[in-house]
Each structure stands twice: as C-alpha cells, then as structure tokens.
Amino acid sequence: MTIYNKGIPDGDLLIRAHLNENQFGMTPAVWDNFDQQRANLYPDPQCLDIQKQIADFYGVSTDMVHVTNGTDEVILMISMAFLSQQVPAIVSDYSFPGYETSARICGANVHYAPLDGYEVPIAQMGTMSQEQQSVIFVCNPHNPTGTMVSQEGIANLVSQASHTDSLAVFDEAYAEFAGDDFCSAIGLIKQGKRVMVTRTLSKAYGLGGFRIGYVIGLPEDIAKITKVHAALPFAVNRLAQNAAKVALSDQTFLRHSVERTSAAKTAFYQAMDAAGIGYIHSHTNFILLNISNKAPMLSSAEFVEKLQDEFGVLVRDAGLFKLYGHIRVSMVDEPHQQALCNAIVSTYKKLREQ
Q: Of 214, 168, 346, whose CA–CA distance to 271 is shortest?
C-alpha cells in the first residue's frame, strides 16, 4: 500500500517524513520583494539568468546548462531525447522509479542491475553498457538507500560506457548532503566525457514547492534536451526562477540547512540504536530503516499505515522501490525530531509483540 497523504490537509499532519522535503525551510531572502515579481507576465522560457548563475557556479559554459521544472521533468526530457526502442535504459534495482517510468513512456526497454547489498552496482552497470548504446541512470547518492558511489566507480562506469557511446546520467539530487567524500560527475563533463548530471533545488535549498532543477552536460547533448523541452516553453514559472536565483546566492543558508540535517541524522541514529532498529548510514537527508531485520514477518506497509493512523506521521514504505521490510524516513526539524523517533520506536515495539 503506497501512502502519499490519504487526502489529509498539510495542517492536520503531525510530521511529513515521507517525501525527503527540507523541513528546515528555505532562505528567508526568497520572500524579499516577492509581491513585485509581476506574476501576470510569462517567465523567461530559457531561464537565462539562472542558467548563467549555475554555469558560473560550476565553472562551465552556459550552453552546458539547461533549467527545468524539477528533476522529474529533466529525467523525462533526457529519456525523450536519447531513448528509443533501439536504445535501452540501464538502472539499478530498488531505485527512484522515475527513470523506469520515463523510459517506458519513450518505448525503451529497461535493463536492471541488482543492488550490491545496499550499494549501487556501478561495476555491473558499466559492463552492461558495453553490450549496446544505452542511457545509464545512476542515482548518487542513492534513493532510497542513502549510499553513494566512489570516484573510482564513477570513472570506471564512464570509461566503459564510452565504448558504445552510451550516455551516463548521474542524478545528484542529494549531493549537497553527501559531505566532503562525495565525488560529483560534473568534473568528468568538464573533461569532455559524455556524461549528464541532474540536480535540484527541492532538497537542500528547500524549494520543493517551487519545482526547479537543472542538468549539466556536453553542449551537443544539452542542445538535444533544449530541442525536446521547446514543447514546454514556459515550464519554469516566474516565481520559481526568482526563488532559484536568490536561493543559489545564499550559500550560508545552504550550509546551515545541511548542518541541521546532519545533526538530525545523528540524533535519529542514536534513537534507532537504542531501540535495536536497523538502518543504513545515509549520505542524504533521509535514512532507510530495515524494520524486518529482527522481525522477518513485520510488514513495512502495515508499519507505515499504523504510523499515520496512530501518530499522524508520514514515512515512505520502501516497498514502492521493491525493498520490502524497509521504510524510508526523511529528517525533520528540531521540534518534531523526538516525536518522530518516539512514534517509530513505539510502532516497532507494538508490531513486534503482535
């Protein structure tokens, strides 16, 4: 059973810990002069201001950046531009379902590589890419496990993919949370490798309600995305474009948001350790719990439903990703941390006793 909100208004929920939203909000600067944004006028269809801002931030040219209405849209645009019945997608099992959904819409076959424990099977995906030209979707850090791929793994995959001119797409939606050990694939694009990196402002920057993301790649590949996206000329609305410009400029808030998320994860780990609930160490703003590690008959779907019905707490049943017996929990702000932990521990104990 997949639960989003069961029709319950936002204000009636105690805790929203199911969509990996940034519970610490966004930079207050977004609201400055917000009422003067002339929302009656169409937005810039090319998002030129943000495009240049992103290009300058990463040290790439503007023709290597394309801005979209969130990461979901750019994944669809990539699929439409590069996938076909002759060009399949390669994805890992138990990953973000948007890759498969977009590929199927475009009539492409989808080839799966099983996770290596909870790690992305990066070596196997590279081997698979040598069979024929493909588009390889790598979620890094990985959703829903929270693990990340090493620099060596990324480089090896891209090298193998080059043998068939395959396109390696790295979804780095949670990169800002990943810490100093994280290796972005953007550096490989600067070296001329056939790679795309997607990013979003919905997570660490806290702009989930605005819906804005972007992709970085080689100019010739970005041009193909731009051509497909021309069917939706005003996809990124005026208010979102303004919010993005402000948010990208406030790196102090970003650091503050990441630090608070890290502190929330530490407190959450401690609570789960005390209760004997298994989890996977995360490089994101969510944590995957293995609630069946000591109770094999424990249903993640029942767990999720009981949490909502008894505590007003929403978490994600990882059965959506075919990771049965697991739940994914987004980190929340300080006033709700203890209540979230207490609800999970209480539910875990009750269901184990049944």
A: 346
336 within 8 A of 329, measured Cβ to Cβ: no
Helices (H), 141-209: 151-161, 186-190
CA–CA separation, 269 vs 28, rounded Å?
A: 30
| 121, amino acid identity | P
φ, ψ at 340 (rounded to 5°): -60, -50
- Residue owning tokens 């969130």: 70
Per DSSP, the three-state class of 168 is: strand
Q: How far apart are CA 165 and CA 160, in angstroms?
A: 9
- The pTM (predicted TM-score) of the whole model is 0.94
Integer distance in angstroms from the first to the last C-alpha of the chain?
20
Which residue(s) pair with 126 in the sheet? none
Q: Which helix (H) or strand (E) holds 17?
A: strand 15-17
Pairing mode of beta strands 286-290, 313-317: unpaired
Q: What is the rounded CA–CA span in Å between residue 257 and residue 52?
A: 24
DSSP-assigned letter for residue 166: P
> The sheet that has 278-280: what strands, in order across it?
15-17, 313-317, 326-330, 286-290, 278-280
The Cα 158–Cα 136 span in angstroms is 10
**Closest alpha carbon to 118 in 323, 338, 351:** 323
Q: Kindly give the confidence (pLDDT) of every residue in the chain, 354 residues in length, as a single tens digit, with 9 standing for 90 and above.
A: 233 344 444 445 579 999 999 999 999 888 876 666 688 889 999 999 999 999 999 999 999 999 999 999 999 999 999 999 999 999 999 999 999 999 999 999 999 999 999 999 999 999 999 999 999 999 999 999 999 999 999 999 999 999 999 999 999 999 999 999 999 999 999 999 999 999 999 999 999 999 999 999 999 999 999 999 999 999 999 999 999 999 999 999 999 999 999 999 999 999 999 999 999 999 999 999 999 877 677 789 999 999 999 999 999 999 989 899 999 999 999 989 999 999 999 999 998 877
**Read out DSSP for 115-145?**
-BTTB--HHHHHHHHTTS--EEEEESS-TTT
Tokens, residue 188: 């490989």
